[in-house]
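Task: fold both queries, return tokens.
Query 1:
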Amino acid sequence: MGRRIPLGRRSLTGFQASRFGGRLAFESRLERDALVLFQFDPDVTRIATQSITIEYGPGPRRRVYTPDILIEWRPGAVPPFGKRAALVEIKYAAELEEHAEKLAVPFAAARDYCASQGMAFEVLTEDQIRTPLLAAAEVLLEHWLRTPQPLLVTAVLAAIEGIEHRTKLGALQERLVLDGWSFDAVYSALRHFLARRLIGADLRRPIDDDLAVWDAHEVRLHA
């Protein structure tokens, strides 16, 4: 059992659209950024917020703690925290330092709980969340579920087949437009392929015409 998130309790509260359907509640701008970043991991199969409440403490003075995010990865993936599922707490570094003593006990309870369930427990700050990859996630995540029409999918697959690292995203886009596809359709389709890692690229770099891209769809489709 989780807990309800009261609107307006922190600097920013609201809901983030989930690529798995529905919406994910968040309590801070940093937590919202974390949800964007985790959804951008193609190996993630489930994300839930405020979904597991952990009891801790002695007898009648027992308390409860609800970590922010539950994440699960697909079988065969290499999850970042070493387990196929993890409970993650999101805290600003300054907040973590200021309340370190107060947080130590519930965090220890969470680690014990997760160990008993074969899960990981992690505390992440802006240092781990607000990375160059977050910028790519912000741009590309909205295209994740915008599957192009089948003929355009075929055209993109043909265009990227065998291309090497020196090919630029703008050149690939221009090639498809010259083949008769509209700019808007090609723009969205290529970002859909990038989001799903069917086109390889260093996503720590800006998503612009100069982004080097390569054929990665065979790897992803058979992962």
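Query 1 returned. Query 2:
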Amino acid sequence: MRAIMASLFCGMLFGAGLAVSGMINPAKVLNFLDFAGTWDPTLALVMGGALIVTIPGYLLVRRLGEPLLGGTFHLPTRRDLDPRLIGGAILFGLGWGLAGFCPGPAFAALSTGHAMVVVFVVAMAVGMVAFHVLAERAIST
């Protein structure tokens, strides 16, 4: 139960951080990506702040050996760039650039109740399910 409560707290803290930073506002994200027009550099500060927290946290994880609330850490072990990773990064970037949302902020933006957010999250979920189905078919053949 402690692990569930800790996960809930971390998720809520993450969502609140996304809301406070403006990451759930697609217009703000799109302005960040618009270097030639109405460029808004404030999200670079958000990314920098995320790195300031993540880097020491990652170093701590490597020292601890196991999570405080049990289980195991799931750290990446591969260091190569394969076509799936590159293709996924391209699709992610295109989706972020076109819609102004990525998965985390989109879920946090559901709290706004805007129809376009719901449409985006549903479309994202359908895409994830479609990928899973297609990947399973490719593995089984």
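Both queries returned. Flag for query 2: Residues 27 and 100 are 7 Å apart (CA to CA).
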